[in-house]
Amino acid sequence: MSTGPATALRLRDLSSPPMRAFHITWIAFFLCFFAWFATAPLLPLAREALALTQAQMDALLVASLATTIVARPVVGWICDRVGPRRTYTVLLVVAAVPLLCMPLVDRYEILLALRLLNGLAGASFVVTSVHTARMFAPNCVGTASATAAGWGNLGGGVAHLAMPALLGMVIALGADEAWGWRYATVIPGVALLAWSFVYFAFTQDLPEGDQLALAREGKYVRPPPKALLSVARDPRVWLLALQYGACFGVEIALENAATLYFRDRFALGLAAAGAVAGCFGGVNIFARALGGWLGDRAGSRGGVRGRLGLLAIVLVVEGAALVLLSTLDGVESAVVVFVSIGLFVAMGAGATYAAVPLLHPKTMGAVSGWVGAGGNLGAVAAAVALGSGRMLDGSAFLTIGVGTIALAALTPIVIAIESNATVPESEPVPLPLPADDVAE
């Protein structure tokens, strides 16, 4: 049995605690992301069925993003306190509730409330990041975390492709289109409930075992409650949070709005527009892992500074692609550039979390939560920019692109204040964790 973090990502290994946690975690994240985006491709039908206004549609797009801003730091802190196994199990159950309740929607207010609750599924990323980072040594933590997150992110793209098909199946079983979109979302809700049992039964918090059991034996010191606020005093955490908003946040906002954009801007059908959105998210199968792998390579040469420099480069290219998209009128070129943006936002997210676990490794749940919250703050900002018709005339993409480049320019500040107190690139985080290291 493993007694420490894995030093390599061995995908065919299903028996060791690190690799078993890796596979079960990315599947859980996939299901949560699927759930998070399950209603997005069906919003055009909700608009018709409930006679929604543009302001109400804008609110629905923002709702599931806004909740996650608060949820991610809290969930990260809970991970540090009770471990990712228990945290993820409960989160999977909670994330299923809004999908199972969707057949109750008969007016805008109920749909808005369920979209707000649906945002809790987005907090799953923090648990995925923490659980993966705890299981792998720093020499490969970026690759492992980014691969798990990237494969999990595929859930968003797959939802855009699969939900219209599930809707067709529900309609074939006898439901009409006006209500079928409500019943279709129940299916991913059931999948979340089923996987919660798998997660609790087959994972453990650390390579050494269960976190609470280790704490009772004196082999693990849980971070104190104030750790959530302690790491928030580090300006590197806040700057990375902003930059994560410029990659992951933009990814989420664009993926949420993609079907509406290509349907309204270029008159594509629901299936075709959903296919473009699916391709945008589908590049996560390799792009986020690529960003993490490049982050590890940059880290082996330049430490945390090298990882941050790589992130800056990716953000600049992403911003330039967004500016280009704002100038395009042809559907073919718009699709190519749009999917290319998906590539760079995913790489940027992977590069970000190649650096995050090394800032404060003893309280990585809190750090991951704050940076993850920044991602959703960026998603809300991008969603607001996309609203009120600004997406259709291209001005929203110009604004987001320029903002992304500006945030990349902050990287020299991050590098300048980055201390030498981070964990060595080649050494795993030791256990037990000294209490003075987490009190800060």
TrEMBL record:
Location of the Major facilitator superfamily (MFS) profile domain: 21-420
GO-annotated molecular function: nitrate transmembrane transporter activity
Membrane spanning stretches: 21-39, 59-79, 88-105, 111-130, 151-175, 181-202, 237-254, 266-287, 308-328, 334-356, 368-389, 395-417
UniProt membrane topology term: Multi-pass membrane protein
Pfam families from the UniProt entry: MFS_1
Family: Belongs to the major facilitator superfamily. Nitrate/nitrite porter (TC 2.A.1.8) family.
Protein name as annotated: Nitrate/nitrite transporter
